[in-house]
Amino acid sequence: MDEALLKEIVIPGTSKIVLLVMDGLGGLPHSGTGRTELETAHIPHLDALARDGICGLSVPVAPGVTPGSGPGHLALFGYDPIAHNIGRGVLEAVGIDFDLEPSDVAARGNFCTVDANGIITDRRAGRVATATSVELCKQLAQIELPGVQTFVEPVREHRFVLVLRGEGLSDRLTGTDPNREGLPPLPVQPTATEALESADLVNRWIAAARERLAGRETANMVLVRGFAKQPMMPSMRELYKLRAAAIAIYPMYRGLAKLVGMTPLPGGASFEDEIEKMKEHWDEFDFFFIHYKPTDTAGEDGDFQRKVEALEAIDKLIPRITALKPDVLMVGGDHSTPAIMAAHSWHPVPFMLIATLCRPDRADTFNERACELGSLGTFPARQALAHAMAHAGRFTKYGA
Amino acid sequence: MDEALLKEIVIPGTSKIVLLVMDGLGGLPHSGTGRTELETAHIPHLDALARDGICGLSVPVAPGVTPGSGPGHLALFGYDPIAHNIGRGVLEAVGIDFDLEPSDVAARGNFCTVDANGIITDRRAGRVATATSVELCKQLAQIELPGVQTFVEPVREHRFVLVLRGEGLSDRLTGTDPNREGLPPLPVQPTATEALESADLVNRWIAAARERLAGRETANMVLVRGFAKQPMMPSMRELYKLRAAAIAIYPMYRGLAKLVGMTPLPGGASFEDEIEKMKEHWDEFDFFFIHYKPTDTAGEDGDFQRKVEALEAIDKLIPRITALKPDVLMVGGDHSTPAIMAAHSWHPVPFMLIATLCRPDRADTFNERACELGSLGTFPARQALAHAMAHAGRFTKYGA
Q1: How far apart are CA B339 and CA B302, in angstroms?
Q2: CATH number assigned to the domain comprising residue A342
């Protein structure tokens, strides 16, 4: 939303806004029944909310564009996901709860295997065991660079995060992965003159890494890519005067929320735990982002029935959220993950907002077809927060 | 669509996209029946496609704006028709298949009649016969300008195209038509300092033309306007990695397509020929723009019944297109031409997209009222291609 406009109309308040994100919420019809996951699931509580609220289909990034988790969430947080592109290195770092500083440069790394001539024979080093990877990262963490602190943090299997911390570092760097076997790793190159020194530093680090790994048969080299700094984003507090909390089991979603200034609250082991966490901290915050993952996992696995069950499972817990009596409850998704595609997709995502001053609309169940009838229509996801702010009484009149 | 975004998400592929443009497709209700041309026509094949696909109403340029053929097509090709304005001179040149070079300056010209004092008595020289015009153009083509090559190509009746080819020419020039009789032609004036020399050259050419035509009673002077260079547009290949072909009977539509890098394939004498041409070249391209003119011609003539028949005629040929099994088929129009207006109009245009991963919507026939119920809603025409790219599997995920 236009920052100058926000400055004029945002007012502080004590109302509570809850944003429930069901990851990968949207779906497509099952070929046998012609019904989507949401249309198949028995979800009386969500349907009742749709009757009370206003509905629509949210477009996370742009028509036809399939979003990753980063852009999908940023949009629901009220940010333009194209203007604020989150680099892969940053996402990988926040995904392991690494506490990035604003000037850090992060990259996604992985161990690979090269032959005696330095030619890549396996880009993923046979998906080396995480335990081995942890050990190798410890060795690489000992590499020293002049004037720069380095962190090498294992992720899972062959993947790790490389973070450079120091003055004047630039992320305008190309990656080293040639994207296929049979070629040597590429040197890191600067894409802007400001990055000349950073490129040199990373290349020295890679050379040192190669030396330290040289004795090994496999996982004897590294590939790094996705160099990125945190995007510079004004916080939700600055823009919306909201004290915002993020409750999620997976660190990546808390990390994404941290990028916009939310306070992360680890979510425990289940969605029930997440709700309990929200209840516990109810008085400390006025915006809660609460994340539900099973819908996406089932969709990505292509398991239609399990996605239906994930929807039915969360439906049973909805009364625990409404019992907290948020002034505004938003229910949506960061993107669609239709089980029949077993992947994220570009299809608009069912969305609803429930508050006392909702003007009734024609959507009276919560699914793709019904939300299309809703008064929000098919709308950019980054507009959702403005609707919530309005219904929460946190926007004053614009102009006299 | 945002070019930086496209760079990140466009991937090459082997899928096939067909864009069928029925010129002037949209209509308005007949006063007797209350039904539009599409609602009156018996079009079972188009209706069946609407049931399978997603529908909407496309807005070619902006709400309320009546587009010419240029902007109407550019939008369907995925370009912002306001940012990429095609000058009248260029449109006239591509309309006669003139092969413009990027630095050429083209203008629309016409013969007019002036009296002994140089006052215009007939701006169109009595719509002089095309044969005479061809002869006069030959004479004017002999005019020589220093350092500049000139082309004078007849169009039809009093109209011709003037093209200047040389170094450093500018199109920032005013026209000479005072827009009414009783005044002398205006001198060409530069609207930017860079165009000083070009203005001088064109004024010398006009003086020479006047001399050569001076012996004549009518058609003894020229008017020129709409000076323009080709707009600088990235090609569909650059933006979308599409090998695109344009199939149309009329050169103007092929010419428009050439401006965005499509390969023009002359369409023969009928729409059947056009489909045959597409079939013939099916393996060479992955995007086909195929143009159908009779809907617009009938609309412009104010012939409701003939427009209905033009729709019924193309409906019978739809199976020949679907038999080619395109991965994505788009059916739309460059603008509305309601027969009751006998002119282009601003009304949004019925549009549908058919592909395997379409999420079903409520539009189950193909006409103005039904398309309004479609899940694409009323949308900017320039977004159509993004939907096609998504459904053709040619966009990868944005962001991690």
Answers
A1: 4
A2: 3.40.720.10
pLDDT per position as a tens digit, B385-398:
999 999 999 999 99
- Give yes or no for A33 touching B (CB within 8 A): no
Alpha-carbon gap: A28 to the closest alpha carbon of chain B (Å): 6
pTM of the predicted model as reported, rounded to 2 decimal places: 0.89
Q: Which residues of B touch A380 (CB under 8 A)?
A: none
Exposed/middle/buried for residue A131 (C-beta within 10 Å: 0-12, 13-18, 19+)? exposed
* pLDDT confidence tier of residue A85, bands split at 50, 70 and 90: confident
Nearest to A346 among B5, B390, B399 (CB): B390
The count of domains in chain B is 2
Predicted ipTM > 0.90: no
Residue B253 is assigned to a structural domain of this protein? yes
Bridging pattern class, strands A263-266 and A287-292 = unpaired
Within 8 A of A71 by CB-CB distance, chain B residues are 398-399
Let me know whether B74 and B164 are in one domain: no
What is the amino acid identity at position B218? T
Final residue of a domain: which of A208, A228, A248? A228
- d(CA B164, CA B326) in angstroms, rounded, equals 42
Q: Which of A188, A212, A228 is the last residue of a domain?
A: A228
Tell me, yes or no, whether A41 lies in a domain: yes
Do B258 and B217 share a domain, yes or no? no
DSSP states along A32-94: TTS--HHHHS--HHHHHHHHHSEEEEEESSSTTPPB-HHHHHHHHTT--TTTSPPPHHHHHHH
Contacts for B25 with CB less than 8 Å, ≥ 6 apart: B38, B295, B332, B333, B334, B335, B336, B337, B349, B350
Q: Are residues A103 and A212 in the same domain?
A: yes
Domain harbouring B127, CATH code: 3.30.70
Kindly calculate the radius of gyration of chain B based on its CA atoms and give it in whole angstroms: 23
pLDDT in tens, A352-398: 999 999 999 999 999 999 999 999 999 999 999 999 999 999 999 99
> Could you tell me the pLDDT band of residue A15, with boundaries at 50, 70 and 90?
very high
Predicted local confidence at residue B231, as pLDDT: 87
Question: Is pLDDT of B333 > 80?
Answer: yes
Nearest to A68 among B4, B383, B399 (CB): B399
* Contacting residues for B120 by C-beta, under 8 A, at least 6 apart: B112, B113, B114, B178, B180, B181, B182, B183, B184, B185, B221, B223
Q: What is the pLDDT, as a whole number, of residue A267?
A: 78
Distance CA A349, CA A332 (A): 7
How would residue A127 be classed by pLDDT, with cut points 50, 70 and 90? confident
Contact criterion met (CB below 8 Å) for B277 and B247: yes
CB B224, CB B106: distance < 8 Å: no
Give dist(CA B106, CA B100) in Å, integer.
Answer: 8
Residue A398 lies in a domain: no
Distance (Å, whole) CA A190 – CA A195: 5
* Residue contact A70–B360, C-beta within 8 A: no
Binary contact (B396, A66; C-beta < 8 A): yes
- Average predicted confidence (pLDDT) for chain B: 95
Asked if residue B147 lies in contact with residue B164, where contact means CB atoms within 8 angstroms, the answer is: no
- Distance in angstroms (rounded) separating the CA atoms of residues B141 and B143: 5
| CB < 8 Å to B1, chain A | 62
Using CA atoms, how far residue A232 sits from A5, A83, A84, A260, B295, in Å, is 20, 10, 8, 9, 52
Of B4, B375, B389, the CB nearest to A64: B389
Query: What is the average pLDDT across B108-135?
Result: 94
Tell me whether residue B400 is in a domain: no
> Do B262 and B141 fall within a single domain?
no
Residue A35 and residue A113 share a domain? no
- The residue segments making up the domain with residue B77 are 3-85+234-391
> Do residues A165 and A209 both lie within one domain?
yes
Cβ partners under 8 Å of residue B281, min gap 6: B245, B265, B288
